[in-house]
Amino acid sequence: MSDYQALMARCEARLAQLAAQAPIKTTPLAEKLEAEGISRRDFMKWSALTTTALALPLQFAPMVAKAAEVADRVPLIWLHMAECTGCSESLIRCDTPTIDTLLFDHISLEYHETLMAAAGWQAEENLEHALEAYKGQYLLAVEGAIPTANGGHYLTVGCKGHTGMEIIHETAANAAAIVSVGTCAAFGGVQAAAPNPTDARPVDRVISQPVVNLGGCPPSEKNIVGTLMYFIMFGKLPPLDMFNRPKWAYGARVHDNCERRGRFDAGEFVETFGDEGAKEGYCLYKMGCKGPYTYNNCPTERFNHHVSWPVLAGHGCIGCSEPNFWDTMADFETSLGRRELHSLDKTADFIGGAILGATVVGIGAHAVASIFAKDNKEEQE
Amino acid sequence: MSKRVVVDPITRIEGHLRVEVEVDENNVITKAWSSSTLWRGIEVIMKGRTPMDAGLLTQRICGVCTYSHYRAGTEAVENALGMTIPVNAQYLRSLMQSSLYMHDHMVHFYHLHALDWVDVVSALSADPAAAAAEAMRWTDKPVAAGEGELRAVQERVAKLVASGKLGPFANAYWGNGTYQLSPEQNLIAVSHYLKALEVQRVAAEMLAIFGGKQPHPQSLVVGGVTSVRDMLSPARLQEWKSKHAQVHDFILRAYLPDVLMAAAAYKAEPSVLGGAGVKNFLACKDFAIGNGQYLFQGGVIMNGDLASVSDIDPAMIKEDVTHAWYQDGPALHPYEGVTEPNYTGFTKRETVYGELPTVDGDGKYSWVKSPRYNGEPVEVGPLACLLVNYARGNDKVVNAVNGLLSLTGLPVEALFTTLGRTAARLVQTQLVCDAALETFDALVNNIAVDQETYRQPVMDPSQEYIGHSMIEAPRGMLSHWVRIAGGKVANYQAVVPTTWNSGPVDANGKVGPYEASLIGLKLEDPTKPLEVIRVIHSFDPCMACAVHVMDYKGVDLGQFQVGTSAA
Lengths: 381, 567
Hints:
Chain B: Belongs to the [NiFe]/[NiFeSe] hydrogenase large subunit family. Chain B: This is Uptake hydrogenase large subunit. The complex is a heterodimer of chains A (381) and B (567). Chain A has 17 helices and eleven strands. With 381 residues, chain A is an alpha/beta fold. Chain A folds into two domains: 6-250, NADH:ubiquinone oxidoreductase-like, 20kDa subunit (Rossmann fold, 3-Layer(aba) Sandwich), CATH 3.40.50; 254-380, Irregular (Cytochrome-c3 Hydrogenase, Chain A, domain 2), CATH 4.10.480.10. In chain A, α1 (3-20) packs parallel to α4 (61-70) and α3 packs across α4. In chain B, β14 (465-473) and β15 (476-485) form a beta hairpin. Chain B is globular and about 70 Å long. The termini of chain B are far apart.
């Protein structure tokens, strides 16, 4: 059986499993789509686009559609730790608006401090209820790093005054899957930049469960929603790179898909911002672009309904989806040139191959450590 | 017998905020404490980095008023290096700021604040036909408020409720007696809540056109703006303009009539007619609209006296840490401020929910410091901006404020309330939205003769520089202060809107805007403190911003000599 056939089989089993669960909603998606003025045809078109975005063959499109129909059966708990709420803002930018909003409606959003109507004691009750009622079924999304210095007391949330560390441990214990949304939750982010005064740590350094890391400050709305979709379709975490980022989103170097790559190859560089080269769209490498060291789909997906991305706006990539980028990629408007990055020493143009090579090893190691362990656990249950 | 009420987390805000109040036997608030429960220490992180990255890093203070700190950080360094930026860059920055306001204020009203005024469950019993007629009372061209659309929205909500899974609407304060809208009015508002989710995406795209992305745009650099290709593209310019028209339309046909509707319904509701316990207001000049003109002027009003407005004197700003979780010391000017954490935790006591950890009001209880102007607490934000400009006789502001007062039949005094603060945010949105078109025209006219967007900064590593910026962010006056030595940031300070509003009581017992706004408020049910949340939300809290960015322990920020014209 080919990999895709295996994946297809797994997907079918997962969807059957989801469909067998007691429905949360009372109206089929088809009716809701109609009420929203969205035709079946538009919906299928969207499913095909999402399938492509997830780097799956088109035969999977019907499954994406099917997954959207059962998506509401996955309760979502979204936590805010040491963060700026930029990732939540990115989430609500979901494009292809109506369908994505619908999808968002169809996940049962149990806890999200920025969006929920309840506050205080009642908000905490909602969290406690969800942890109990959906034990082992809920998806946990975390925004922000976890301050660990001073007994974790640089962050407390709730009437009971629990620290961020306590809350992460409690909510992670029975999560079906855990997604670190954004560079802070994934890698520590800005508060973990040197000298990291609160000893802020990424989620996966505070708990022992496997975690999907969505790098980006913030990650695009596509990368957030796409990852949730993957879990819903396959019931497991997506294939990950050496930093536990989903390969479908972070598998390619910004530099390799950059719209200005031809300029790089031709040796046409912006020399100062606003010069004639800048007006012509020359390469920003000399202006400090970190695209050669950064893995993300910004050049292909862009941000805000494909409106733009930093390089289109004439500024280099700052490498915001990479671990410790505040320290390793600075100064942001100075080119790194040849330097050691992630323990690899390569010049800009060759570093990609090196990282990809390491990625393969990383994935293998990680798969053994986390994914397969997760599978075994599921199969035992 | 007094009772303690704890509200934590205050949801539908940016960041982590706890509010506690003490109510008397009649459930009237006699004491209030505002406590920020997260410290990130970004002040320490800034030190030793290149000033060219100051904007990018400080932008990560907040992803909601994203761009504000980016611009303030970038302009503080420009000010330190003594440079001016090209006219095109000024206009592009102004357009990005306008785009941010249109997004941020709308999201605040519909997605963060509305559920304090709108009872979602009540909307279920509305008659959609009557609701459609009701919508026509507030504008003759309502958005998403025809009978059919309202019926569809109602059915959608009904199905959610019937499913027993209310998601983000679960376990809130529905049915509270201070909700004043009729079922039909609630239905209109719920329809607009959903519609605004779509429109906010468009508003965010406006900023992304010149900023590269939103949140956290990436096109500002010390010396100008990088999005020169977007600026020179007629298609890009028109893309911005058409999105502006789309958002503008929603503001006129939904946001404005909804505020008018709410003002009429709530104008006799006592719980929204207080909420301005501190009547000192501070705002600064901002929004370049062409020919060296600005939409808003700056100034200070004390004691609610609109007949007297003075210029800002930055030397009057001091920060008190008596009740903040930092090492004690005298009130210091921000440049001299010390940020050494001293967490003292909570104290267990009986509350309306049983025994809980609570703030120690006599001791330290928040990560936010208490800024004071000439020793007095002040409020900043849209209300402060409008009042300062009203007092200054700024024609646009006077006309807009008088227009709203005449439409609602409310007196000027009504501005000094929770309701007035919420209405002021709408008026400011409209003013900014209209002025953005002036800025746009000024940009287009200028491009025809001048395409400069950037000037290379010159920084001599052997020299020391100091500088600051003051901008009017969506939540009020924001200033950044920087000292540069050896080509690196030697010290950094940001004095942030929510710090002014949310800080704890000071050494002299003077109470800040949040805490003062709650005194005298009566709660229908202390275990479900909707009234508290409504008042606090009217300030639009942004706690990640409020908790200090800046100053490095024990290091003097330098001797800033600041003229008020430098804003």
